[in-house]
Each structure stands twice: as C-alpha cells, then as structure tokens.
Design a protein that fits this description.
- The structure is a single chain.
- The two termini are about 35 Å apart.
- Helix content is about 35%, strand content about 25%.
- It is built from 9 helices and 19 strands.
- Strands 6, 9, 10, 13, 14, 15, 16, 17, 18 and 19 form a 10-stranded mixed sheet that branches.
- With about 325 residues, it is α+β, with helices and mostly antiparallel strands.
- Strand 2 and strand 3 form a beta hairpin.
Length: about 325
C-alpha cells in the first residue's frame, strides 16, 4: 500500500531539519517540532522531518516524516475531541498545527496494554512493580495485561524521563489531586478509543504516551496522539501464534530504528558514535511511517512537496494569519 515513488534524490536532500521564521521569536526546538509563540495564547507548531532515538537526533532526516506525523496527529486528535479538550485550533498545512498555548503538566502519561519495551525490561530484571503498579508473575514478553496500566514518567528537559508512581506525583505536589484524577480518567478513555480505531484496521495499540496541559484551567490534550513517535502498534494477525512461540511481534513503531542503531553499535551511551542513516534505510523509515498513517486513516498518504528555499516565508504567511 505504501508508495516510495515520491522519494527521489531531491526529497532526500530537501528535508525540513530546522525552521527560522522572520518576525517571530526563536522557536523552542524539541527533538521533532519547532514551536513558535504567535502571541494571543497561540502557538505555531512545525513538525520537522527530524527523527530521534536513544535521546539523540539522527544526522539524517526522513523525507515527509513531519507531514505524516502532523497529519496523523490531526486525525487522532479529531477522533478523541469528544472525550477531552485538545490544543488544536487549526491545521493549515501538512507540517503545521496552530494550537492553544497551554500550561504544560510535567508528566508523561504512559498507558500500556502489553508487557513490552521498558515494562518488559523491568520485568526481566526480576522486579514486579512498575511506577507503583503491581505486575503479576508468570507473564511473557508482549503478553497483554488483563487491563491497561498507567505508568507515568517525569518530563525531563534533558536526558531520560524517569519513572514515577501516581502516589509520588500527588505526594510531591507535581499535579493537583483533582486534576490528576481527571487526567487519568481521560487518558484511559483516549487509549480505549485508540485501541478501537487500531483494532478495526488490524492493529493492536500496545502502548502510548500522552501529554496534557491546562488552558484557562481546563485539562487539555497537547503534543501528539497515537502516532508512530508516541505509540507502539503490533499487527493483530498472527499475534497469538507469535506470542505462543515466543517470537518477536511484527510491529509498526520507531522500535525498528532503535534495533538498527543497536545493530550498528549505538545506544546513546558515552563513547559511542552516532551512525549515518543510509538513503535506503531512510526510505524504509518513510515506508513504515506511511504504512501506519494509511492503515489508521484508511487513506493514501500524498505528500506536499517542500521547497526549503521558500518554506520559511510560507510559514511566516501562515503564522501572520493567526
């Protein structure tokens, strides 16, 4: 279903790695997004083509990744806006979201349906408690929990996020008790909606992270939702057979990038050298992101060509409208 015909030498060269919009304050540059303060409690969020793993931004970007990410997030925000207020005001360009300027809550709300990734590593180490949640004995990697679990993490400005329990969040006064209760209730409902959408398309939403903020005191969903950067998906077909055989699950997520990096001796550790991403691999990454977009939305992904020589001017014209 995915189509690499859009990826040519120009697309590989013409990725959005950094933006600089004249007339606006320098943006906050996250690992993927450049966030501009537009005034009037509005943000201009530009999804770049940068990709990160092990807390490092890769030296090469992925063609059209920002468009896929931003468009899939817009689709997912729209699917949950009856459950929670979202920060989305408008999506005037495939790379751009105009959003409400919220007061961020410094907790990553991580929901897990399966014993996978970080949870599986903790479990293999012999521990049976994760973020204050008791894990049953006798589980195997990638097995589904009886019910999804909430395993929060502190949102670090730099470096790795740290696990934290709900009890610690409240004891340390990081989030007001009533606000936290509302966040956890909404998070589980959003996750259930994401599972329903995934299941209809032959996928399992394995785990995800949500970020929330307050806008005029209202709990509001921010950042991104149910994308390949924030979520892990398994293919539903063959899941049970692979689980019984102890085989790795077939998945759509950024995990394959981490695996490629580990195969090339990089895990973000001191003294390790970040490898270059070959063009063939960059195209594979594009195909993975495209496949997830098309599976979840049921629509083909058709990129909008970008000319980096004029893109900053285009962004200024967009921002000026708001």
């Amino acid at each position: 279903m995915t189509n690499s015909s859009y990826i040519n030498s120009k697309a590989l060269r013409n990725c959005i790695t950094q933006t600089d919009v004249q007339g606006y304050p320098d943006p906050y540059r996250g690992k993927v997004r450049d966030v501009y303060d537009l005034g009037n409690d509005k943000l201009g969020i530009v999804a770049s083509d940068r990709i990160s793993a092990f807390d490092h931004i890769m030296k090469q970007a992925i063609p059209y990744k920002g468009q896929i990410l931003n468009s899939l997030a817009a689709f997912a925000f729209d699917k949950v806006d009856d459950l929670v207020a979202t920060h989305v005001i408008d999506v005037p360009h495939p790379n751009v979201t105009i959003a409400k300027k919220c007061e961020p809550i410094p907790i990553e709300v991580v929901i897990r349906a399966c014993l996978t990734g970080h949870a599986a590593r903790v479990y293999k180490s012999g521990k049976r408690t994760l973020c204050g949640v008791e894990l049953p004995d006798g589980m195997v990697e990638n097995q589904q929990f009886e019910e999804p679990i909430l395993t929060p993490a502190t949102k670090a400005e730099e470096g790795h996020d740290e696990d934290i329990s709900e009890k610690e969040i409240l004891e340390q006064g990081i989030v007001d008790k009533d606000i936290w209760q509302e966040i956890r209730e909404k998070a589980f409902k959003i996750f259930e909606r994401g599972q329903q959408i995934a299941n209809k398309q032959g996928l399992i939403l394995v785990d995800t992270k949500y970020e929330f903020g307050l806008y005029n005191g209202e709990v509001t969903l921010i950042d991104e939702v149910h994308t390949a950067d924030s979520s892990r998906y398994f293919y539903a077909g063959g899941y049970d057979e692979r689980l019984q055989k102890g085989e790795p699950q077939k998945q759509l997520s950024k995990e394959f990038l981490r695996e490629w990096l580990m195969d090339h001796n990089f895990q973000g550790k001191k003294g390790q050298t970040l490898p270059d991403l070959p063009n063939e691999f960059r195209i594979k990454v594009y195909n993975r992101y495209t496949e997830l977009f098309e599976k979840l939305t049921g629509k083909p992904f058709e990129p909008t060509p970008i000319d980096m020589d004029s893109f900053n001017n285009e962004l200024k014209e967009i921002f000026d409208r708001y």
